[in-house]
Design a protein that fits this description.
With 418 residues, this protein is mostly helical. It is built from 19 helices and no strands. Helix 2 runs antiparallel to helix 3 and helix 5 runs antiparallel to helix 6. About 1% of the residues have low confidence.
Length: 418
């Protein structure tokens, strides 16, 4: 441990001594604080030593020295990230959750003191992601509902924007189109009407694309939000997402050249598969339905490559428009099976979450019972010890008084003889 601490201290000393001319400082914090922050950020996931703690403590110390309140807030954010990383590997979920919640509350407290509300809401974001990644979606929904309530009380646009968007995505992943649409629409409205430049700079492309999937395939509403997604693209991944949905609209409309154009933009980009969770088999199905070449057996063999139910919903609609009833029926069966699987998976997650909580409560109850028994035994032992001491003391006093009385009698006899 001392060795690790020494190495970390040496690295920090070197980092602090050499100005980072090549690095930008987008956070606008003290340069030395930024160096410590970057080092702590790179060590969040390394639990083999205490180098992270050394870097993050150095960040806090420097932030206090130079009165950099933003850097001081970031220190607590990094601590929350570290707590989450350790908690994800933990086995006592109740105990780990309590640690995460305590770290979240600390970020919220400090960010309120320092006047950086973006970190106040970022703490909610990190925590709900932790709950989702540990299969505790019920906890994630509770955290997000709290985030919305607090944002409404504070009349904070940024918190409302994040809360609405995250809850919408949560419902969308659960295939709850009604609630997903409700929250997506509100998130997009907040974005469009926002005065906060932080909100205006953020992309709504994914929200618009996900929202389009809550409407019937190819409907006017779906097209409207896909078009809006393209207009609001900010980064390369946004463009890929827009190309993907545009290829679907072109296929529905029978515009083969336009479809091929958007398809090629997608499949020629190495980042596309990861960005959209889409394999080449999806496009093979689309083209096979469009030109009538795909057989039901061939189509059925490719269903395993469909990553999410919305792809099957689209293929069913495309098959219906091409009057491929056999393909539409197979795709429809795939939709039903996917929904059943999703429901089963959600129920399994909820059962697992409840079981884990129940197990933790049982453990806590067992510990409480053990503590109670310990207190009872301790009380009994203490009582017996006190009784024993009182008995000994009584015996000593009785013996002392007896000896004293004997001494007086002897003294009186001696005096009488004299």
């Amino acid at each position: 441990m001392k060795y690790h601490k020494l190495i970390a201290a040496i690295i920090l000393g070197i980092a602090a001594a050499i100005p980072c001319f090549a690095q930008e400082n987008p956070y606008g914090i003290d340069a030395q604080c930024y160096d410590y922050f970057m080092m702590a950020e790179s060590l969040v996931g390394d639990t083999s030593n205490n180098a992270f703690e050394v870097a993050n403590d150095a960040l806090l110390k420097r932030a206090i020295e130079c009165s950099d309140e933003k850097a001081r807030t970031i220190h607590y954010v990094e601590n929350l990230k570290r707590t989450i990383r350790i908690a994800r590997a933990g086995t006592n979920r109740l105990e780990e959750n309590q640690k995460v919640e305590a770290a979240r509350q600390e970020v919220m407290r400090v960010s309120t003191e320092t006047g950086y509300p973006q970190y106040f809401f970022y703490a909610y974001e990190l925590t709900q992601t932790y709950y989702i990644n540990t299969r505790q979606e019920g906890h994630a929904q509770t955290v997000l509902q709290e985030m919305l309530r607090v944002s409404q009380e504070r009349k904070d646009e940024y918190g409302l924007w994040l809360g609405e968007r995250f809850i919408a995505t949560l419902y969308h992943n659960q295939n709850d189109t009604k609630n997903a649409r409700k929250y997506f629409l509100e998130a997009i409205r907040i974005h469009d009407e926002a005065h906060d430049p932080t909100i205006r700079r953020q992309s709504i492309t994914r929200a618009c694309c996900d929202l389009s999937e809550t409407y019937p395939v190819g409907s006017d509403s779906a097209r409207l939000f896909i078009r809006k997604a393209g207009e609001g693209a900010r980064i390369h991944q946004d463009s890929l997402r827009y190309f993907y949905y545009s290829s679907q609209l072109a296929a529905l409309d029978g515009k083969r050249e336009l479809y091929a154009h958007y398809r090629d933009l997608c499949v020629s980009d190495p980042a596309f598969m990861n960005a959209m969770r889409t394999t080449p088999e999806f496009f093979e199905c689309v083209e096979g339905i469009m030109d009538g070449s795909i057989t039901p057996d061939a189509f059925d063999s490719k269903l395993q490559y469909m990553q999410y139910v919305q792809q099957l919903v689209f293929l069913r609609e495309l098959a219906l428009r091409q009057q491929r009833w056999d393909i539409a029926a197979t795709a429809g069966n795939g939709v039903i099976q996917s929904l059943y699987s999703a429901i089963s998976r959600m129920n399994d997650m909820r059962i697992e979450e409840v079981s884990a909580a129940h197990g933790n409560y049982e453990l806590s109850a067992q510990l409480a019972r053990q503590q109670k028994r310990t207190r009872v035994v301790t009380s009994i032992v203490l009582t017996l010890v006190i009784i024993l001491l009182i008995t000994i003391l009584t015996f000593v006093l009785w013996r002392y008084n007896k000896l004293k009385a004997g001494h007086l009698i002897l003294k009186n006899k001696v005096n009488s003889k004299i």
